[in-house]
Fold these 4 entries.
Entry 1:
Amino acid sequence: MKVASVADVKARLSAYLQEAESSGPVVVTRNGRAVAVIVAPTDDDDLEGLLLSRSPRFRKLLDTSRASIARGKGETHEKFWKSARRNDGAAR
């Protein structure tokens, strides 16, 4: 993992993008503190996971779902997938 200042990344962005693709994440710092990370997604699923992991709306949805499950209002795995298959067929 490489660490670089904002000023250096601004001056050499292409090089840091290549670095992220070939060697892994690049931590971007300002005044010695991490402020961003340059990450090259491996595929569309990886990109989606990265974006969802930082989404406040998605995190709220997960928190709400976890709370519901903790209150005993969750569905079984089998019931969930049966409902999902039924809804998927209706959308077509």
Entry 2:
Amino acid sequence: MAYPLTFAMAAHVAHAGFLYVLLTIARAPSVWGVGSRPDGSNPWAEIEPRISANLSNQFEWPVFFHSACLLLLFQREAGHFVLALAWIFVGGRLLHSYVQIAGTSIRLRGLVFTVNFLAVLGLWTVVLLNALKSS
């Protein structure tokens, strides 16, 4: 059976893949002329930069999530607390994407990011506590 923590990691990777597809669709009218308005303009022009920015966000703080998960896999640590933190992070990333792409509330984005931030700090706390126990 696959190690349970890998499912949370795979879910985030799938989310980033979905954002690539969404960005490709949003850029299609400008790049290939597919789906453009009768006047030739891109109907996604307003939202495309937000999708692009959100996709970039998937390679910033989430790097610390994936590295913590890899270390936890190496440490053979995937208790309920760790799994809860990992899924909170993934759910938070999904919500963060929705808030950033569909809306403009910086305050709400900051709140959602804080949840993601704390989940990853929790994972790193477990990594460090495990390292201290084994040294």
Entry 3:
Amino acid sequence: MPTPTIEELRKKTPVKSVADKPENQALLRNLLATKGKVPTDSHPSSASPAKRTELPGRYLTLEQPPISAFDDNPVFNEIGAALFLGVSDETLKKWRQRKMGPDYIQYGPGGPVRYTIKALLEFRAAYTVKPARKKK
């Protein structure tokens, strides 16, 4: 199956983009002609490269990633979790040794330790102090 030309694609799906502006058409043609390579001093381009009228297939598919690709509960390493809580990573290590601190995930004995954002938020909320206010 031959790769469709730019003109054929525009007829099928009219897309409004920066490349559609007349002032950017020359830049787009030049970029396609040079295949995205910037000429350097060691390789002077004295000859005009052939102009491309087709886009490679990999640039034609602009699909959204599936919803499962978005992680709603990311994990942090020890340093990231310590920064999030406002303590040092050594403090987190001591808390783990004393069976204190936020819940964590450890991948095998002696393996890397990770903290979920949910566990960090719950831990921070559990230790939030609300001082008693005087009533007027």
Entry 4:
Amino acid sequence: MGRAYAGILGPLAFALVSARGVLAGGGMEQALLAACAALFVFAGIGYLAGQTADYLVRESVRTQFQTAMAAWEQKKTQPQPTT
């Protein structure tokens, strides 16, 4: 998930900073330099956010699964009532 977030946030930041530089009428070299810096910074932020989200989702699912399996095992080992 981290690579996907990095692949989205980095180019998005590049496009926005490039557009801002063009609209502001500044030099193209300065705009591209700022856009490249934004690309790497936001790609890094996106990677960290994606890895964190992936970890949290996996841990949540693992905890829910283990809880469900423990309840199933407990139910399975309880004596069945005879009717």
